[in-house]
Design brief:
This protein is 41% helix and 13% strand. By secondary structure, the protein is α/β, with parallel strands linked by helices. A seven-stranded mixed beta sheet has the order 4-10-9-8-7-5-6, sandwiched between helices. A three-stranded antiparallel beta sheet has the order 11-14-13. The structure holds pyridoxal-5'-phosphate (PLP). The site of pyridoxal-5'-phosphate has 13 residues, from helix 4.
């Protein structure tokens, strides 16, 4: 260490003693590696701190910044986990055979993919697998803007350059071969070697999904250019119903790695269970063995009880299928209602086809916002929090241009009821009473989900009360009203 010195002194008895003298806490003792500099503080961190401060001051903040699925766990999965609690040994690095087999069959059954268990690797979440893929595959990374917050930091940590693929807000942020060609050309011109494309349908942050023709066009593009596609399908089960999920592996199986997991489908992010499926054949086997080697050096294996319980989650079961269908339907209903309300107010917002996100664009209010000193998505997010107690993430967190006045809204936490008792009474009640009440409410909502009104398919007639959603709508309405008329500012 450069700032510590060793020097010898003589003891009273004439013996030599070595002192290690420290020069004090200069920070040198904890010097960081260059990789740490690729990471900026998480965009959610600042907003979470601001929300915590406002709540501590007694403000009623509506939190649309947190994208966690929040339905209760199906009883069958709870029972399956309890039954495997005694599995305490390490499991095979790539996952237990029963689970790899169940996932392969699941993808064949639900997505029509021809997958065998040997192509599947299981990990503590799909997120570490995506990072492992960025580390093990060659080349720089093409990532659409907007895209999930972690792709770019992960790719950079893996020493890759991130090449932004532009999308058009007027075209619902659709990813096109033309934009890909442009990104590749720009990247090559700058000395990059684009070889990996990350896609995500349904998308976080937009909720958009590829139409079948888009998937075919992207597959053709990837085959022509020889790019490896990482198809993050973590929200596939949460398609709202008006557009079917089509995996890119359907048309480009030799070059597509599909990832997914339990986090969104079963509101089980804390279980940390994800998977990746590599292509069949010799090249796929090589990739899987590279992933296995890396996994063995980092996480060894995925939690044994969770893997055993996950076999149930991926096996055919009418109750679980009903649960997933109803969750997806509820997300569709909720995002659809908020989207319609925003559009009515003059906000631009593509209709989501899956997941629990909206990606509204406040461009029609650009002039009115500029007059209030708001010219970027970060300023907009701050303004909404400070003036209207609405918490949302700015588009910049997803790689969007700072001047684009877009935000990501997560609707997954809007299913709670309004507190029926005062805060003082709440304090006096057992915490678990309230938790039970909340869970019962969520089950009741899921029960009614099959009949929910759907303006696109014109099916269903059931409307449900979502008081939190109504409040979000009211606050946005107050915000928009405070800005004056749309026409005057667009
Ligand atoms: C687009 C996307 N991909 C991957 C993940 C990570 O999921 P997992 O819990 O499997 O690591 C998330 C979670 O937020 C996500 O939104």
């Amino acid at each position: 260490m450069s700032t510590t010195r060793a020097h010898r002194t003589t003891t009273r008895h004439g013996g030599a003693r070595t002192h290690v003298a420290s020069s004090g806490p200069t920070g040198e003792q904890l010097r960081l590696a260059p990789a740490s500099r690729t990471l900026a503080p998480s965009p959610t961190l600042e907003i979470n701190e601001a929300i915590a401060a406002r709540r501590a001051a007694g403000r009623d903040v509506l939190h649309l910044g947190f994208g966690e699925a929040s339905f209760p766990l199906p009883p069958k999965l709870r029972e399956a986990l309890a039954a495997s609690a005694t599995r305490t040994s390490y499991e095979p690095v790539v996952g237990i055979p029963a689970l790899r087999d169940a996932i392969a069959r699941y993808l064949s059954r639900t997505r029509g993919l021809d997958v065998s268990a040997e192509q599947v690797i299981v990990a503590p979440g799909s997120k570490p697998l995506l990072y492992a893929l960025f580390l093990m595959l060659a080349g720089d990374v093409l990532a659409p803007a907007p895209a999930w917050v972690s792709y770019a930091p992960q790719a950079r940590l893996a020493g890759r350059r991130v090449l932004v693929v532009e999308t058009d807000p007027e075209d619902a942020h659709r990813l096109t071969p033309r934009a890909l060609d442009a990104a590749v050309a720009r990247g090559r011109h700058a000395g990059a070697d684009p070889r990996i494309l990350i896609i995500n349908s349904p998308s976080n942050p937009t909720g958009g999904m590829f139409a079948r023709e888009d998937v075919e066009a992207l597959a053709e593009w990837a085959r022509r250019t020889g790019v490896t596609v990482l198809s993050d399908e973590i929200y596939a089960e949460l398609a709202h119903g008006w557009r079917s999920h089509v995996s890119l592996a359907t048309f480009y199986p030799e070059g597509t790695v599909v990832t997914g997991g339990l986090s969104k489908t079963y509101s089980a992010g804390g279980w940390r269970l994800g998977y990746a499926v590599v292509p069949a054949g010799a090249a796929g086997r090589k990739l899987l063995s590279a992933l296995r080697a890396l996994s063995s050096e980092i996480w060894s294996s995925t939690s044994a009880p969770i893997q055993a319980a996950a076999v149930t989650a991926f096996s055919p079961d009418a109750d679980l299928e009903t649960y997933v269908r109803r969750s997806a339907r509820l997300h569709g209903y909720t995002t659809g209602r908020l989207r319609d309300a925003l559009v009515e107010m003059g906000v631009r917002c593509p209709r989501p086809a899956g997941a629990f996100y909206l990606y509204p664009d406040f461009a029609p209010f650009k002039a009115a916002l500029a007059a209030r000193g708001v010219t970027t998505s970060e300023e907009l997010a701050r303004y909404l929090l400070e003036r209207h107690d609405i918490a949302a993430l700015p588009g910049t967190a997803f790689g969007d241009r700072p001047a684009a006045l877009r935000l990501r809204l997560a609707t997954s936490m809007l299913y709670g009821g309004l507190p029926s008792v005062s805060p003082a009474q709440q304090d006096a009640r057992e915490g678990h009473d309230l938790a039970d009440e909340h869970e019962a409410r969520l089950w009741a909502l899921l029960e009614r989900a099959d009949g929910l009104a759907d303006p696109i398919s014109s099916t269903g007639s059931v409307e449900i009360e979502l008081p939190m959603l109504d409040r979000v709508g009211q606050r946005f309405a107050a915000f928009v009203e405070s800005l004056g008329s749309v026409g005057a500012s667009s």
